[in-house]
Amino acid sequence: MPVLKNPMVSDLFCLPYAKARHHFIDLADTALDNLPGQILHFTHPELGPMGEKLTSDWVWLGERKAPSVLVLISATHGVEGAMGSGLQREILPELIKLLLQRGQLAVLLIHALNPWGYAWSRRTDHQNIDLNRNFIDFGQPLPYNHEYSLIESDLLAHTADRDSAIELWKKELGSERFEKALSSGQYHSSAGLFYGGRKMAWSHNTLISGLSTLSLTYAKRIIALDLHSGLGPYGYGEVISDHPINSKGDLLSREWFGHQVCHPARGNSCSVSKSGLLDYYFHDLIGERGCFLTFEAGSYGNNAMFNLLCEDQILWNRTDLYANEEQRQHAMLEHFCPADTHWQNAVYCRYRQLVNTAVERLLEKP
User: Fold this and answer.
1) Splitting the chain (366 residues) into consecutive groups of 10 residues, what average pLDDT does each group show?
2) What gap in Å lies between CA 173 and CA 147, rounded to an integer?
3) Structure pTM?
4) Quick check: helix, strand or coil at residue 16?
5) Rounded distance, CA 11 to CA 3, Å?
6) Burial, 46: exposed, middle or buried (Cβ in 10 Å; 0-12, 13-18, 19+)?
7) Rounded to an integer, what distance in angstroms lies between the CA atom of residue 241 and that of residue 360?
8) Residues ≥6 apart with Cβ < 8 Å to 290
9) What is residue 2's predicted lDDT score, i.e. its pLDDT?
10) Which of 16, 246, 261, 304 could cross-link to 300 by cystine, CB 3.0-4.6 Å?
């Protein structure tokens, strides 16, 4: 029996998409038996690996005109939804208890914004679009990542060739510049890495539709947390802001969450600056009413993640797609939601701390 008790995650923490969705819907239905709210289901045009229907499920809990709203998003990067859904489902019973006591707060949970990627254990969607590079103005000429075009063939080479080529590129460009070339987003290679697409992705359109129905118009304070995994130290949840420096969102994020907030543009984050982030859509939507933060749960390190994504892309580009499918899915899930319960508990405790701070700030008197 431990002397000090910490919240421990359940055996249902890391689940495949279909089981996670079923569990999430059960929890949401129970919540709506006791709370005002609404649930929306957005059906994806493609099916899952077992022929199952795929949906992005949205749940609003609380009064529609609540002055403060907490938004929790999972599976922007599909496979990362295994962890994100786990965190949403673990925290939901506690949020329900809070909402039953406090009428000034509402919670919007977006479960599996990219359900196809979650179901198929890919970061991208069915068109190989990285949703978190898709939020650009498609009415303007597409950005061109010249340095990515230089390194792509080496990234998608065989392992031994790739490792030596990457080291040469890192020496030539420097580590940070190489990482930006690789991961900041590119819009010309549809079979490449971190591809932002040439038009709005299905999940992008779904976000617009969902937020036109479950509107944030009435809220005076908003905190949105987008749940990600794979970058950074093992078991640590970094809090990342991509608000423009010294903007209202930047100032509020630091005022409300303190020095734990990291900022790629300030150079103190495990992430580098990127184009087309989901953040940018929410920056415009929230305005000066709050902030949008990324919760990034680290696992096996950035180099391991980039190497895994290269391997995943090579396998996905092959015509004999299913030859190594079980092995591919296992490798992706293990990196983005390790089976290690120590990792799961560490990530959950960190996330729980962050949600607690968010709720405290949302319920503060102006």
Assistant:
1) 74 96 97 96 96 97 97 98 98 96 94 98 97 98 96 90 91 93 96 98 98 96 98 96 97 97 94 95 98 98 93 86 81 97 96 97 88
2) 9
3) 0.96
4) coil
5) 22
6) middle
7) 19
8) 219, 221, 222, 223, 224, 249, 252
9) 55
10) 304
Contacts of 65 (CB under 8 A, 6+ apart): 218
SS3 label, residue 157: coil
- In 3-state terms, what secondary structure has residue 227? strand
**Spatial distance between the Cα atoms of 259 and 328, rounded to a whole number of angstroms:** 38
Which tokens go with 209? 């539709």
Note the helical H segments in 195-340.
202-213, 248-257, 278-286, 302-317, 325-336
Could you tell me if 352 and 22 are in contact, meaning their C-beta atoms sit under 8 angstroms apart?
Answer: no
Torsion sign, CA atoms 112, 113, 117, 121: negative
Sheet hosting strand 290-297, strand order edge to edge: 37-47, 53-61, 105-111, 68-73, 221-229, 290-297, 237-240, 261-262
Instruction: Give the side-chain half-sphere CA count within 13 A for 73.
Output: 26
The pLDDT score that the predictor gives to residue 318 is: 84
pLDDT at 192: 97
Q: Are 255 and 223 in contact (CB under 8 A)?
A: no
Neighbour tally for 351: CB within 10 Å: 24
Q: Where are the domains of the chain?
A: 17-140+198-363
Dist. CA 292–CA 282, nearest whole Å = 7
Element (H, E) at 94: helix 81-101
Tell me the longest C-alpha to C-alpha distance in the chain. Answer: 61
Alpha carbon 14 to its chain's center: 15
Taking the C-alpha atoms of residue 366 and residue 360, their distance in angstroms, rounded to an integer, is 12
Q: Nearest CA to 114 among 79, 80, 76, 84? A: 76
Report the alpha-carbon distance of residue 174 to residue 243 in Å, rounded.
25
Tell me if 244 sits within 8 A of 349, measured CB to CB: no
Residue 1's pLDDT is 46
Tokens of 42: 């957005």
CA distance 188 to 198: 8
CATH topology (fold) of 17-140+198-363: Aminopeptidase (3.40.630)
